[in-house]
Amino acid sequence: MSKLDSSNPNESFNNTVRSKAPKDKHYSESGSLAHRLSAAVHEELGLSPGIATTVTAAIRDKDVNRKRTVAKTKEFKLQRLKLKSQRSSETRSHEIREGDTYCKSDSEEPDLTVIPGPSEDNCEHIEKVVVFYDLETTGLSRQSSITQISAVCEEQEFNRYATPTQEISEDACRVTGLKFNTATNELLYNDEPVSHKHPQQVLLDFIQFLMSLCASDKHIVLAAHNNRRFDSIILFNQLKFYKLWNHFSRYIVGFCDTLPFFKMLYPEFENYKQEYIAQKLLNEAYSAHNALDDCRMLMSLVKKTEKIDVLLSDYFYSSHQVTFQGVQPNKESLEHLLRNKVLSRTIFKKLEDSTLTYNHLKISYHRDGFDGLFYLLMEKTGSGKARISNNRRVIQKIADFFF
């Protein structure tokens, strides 16, 4: 190899080997390693490369020179800038749609709403799954604490008791049969102790139950009796208090109220308490004001009408309509933007055909103002076209509306 009395030849040989088999490439398990070392030895010994090596080297050198020449052209540089801009736009669009991925523990409720991407716009009709739910509370106030939450969806059932954070009123105690002994930390249902958890954990378990019912082609709608005036407001207030509303809203699209639904179907009824309707339609009596029994009965009653499509179309309200004060009129809709000439009919039709809603536009604006709307609406589809529009004047009108 080389004499050991001088390190210069050794260093020269090491450099040659390193050039043939660089350490940043994994050649140790490659069959070419032996050939690379042989090439380094031959080069150090001054042996001329063979014909095949010379031809291959000439071809590769020619290819490298061609690429260098192309890289210097104006067209190539413009294309490189265009691709860089596209990658940057795609990243910004994903960030706008994704929402918060990190926040401090003492900050406001994180924005976890994920806005659907363009790939979901061409999905088939998305089915709505009705989940019948009911709450028992410490009182009739909208600020009452939840003591029981139950839900039923076909054969799937959910039932949890929550530790009351407020004193259970006498009226609520008489109606629900629930009592709480603060001295022993026991929750009693009809004088029998039942297992109970912290309200936050109960709400998390409920969200987990809804997640188990979710699928890519299904949207969940929560239905309850007197939902609009009571249950959905209580649920909203409690979820907001524990900073879980945004997380919860990822899995439901809205609510249905069965009280006006039954009033429309059976105007001749004397009253519309659930136990009265059960007696009239099914000729059954049941344990009213136990949340789980209420859910089971409500599902049976709605199925009996065979008009669940009417319930979903005429007595549905979106989750973003629910507030601390109650359910607000649906002014926050794409139709509202069309009536106020914020959207042209063409843009309105594109938004209708996509999976984007009024709430998604509002969220994107709150996340990053005009840029949030711009990167959401101009995101490229599979065909390379803008999802809705890349016209800045069109997007500016929407941004001005939300300002």
Automatic annotation (TrEMBL):
Its cofactor is Mg(2+). Residues 87-107 have a biased composition (Basic and acidic residues). It comes from the Eukaryota. Keywords: Exonuclease, Hydrolase, Magnesium, Metal-binding, Nuclease. InterPro entries: PML_C, Ribonucl_H, RNaseH-like_sf, RNaseH_sf, TREX1/2. Belongs to the exonuclease superfamily. TREX family. This is Exonuclease domain-containing protein.
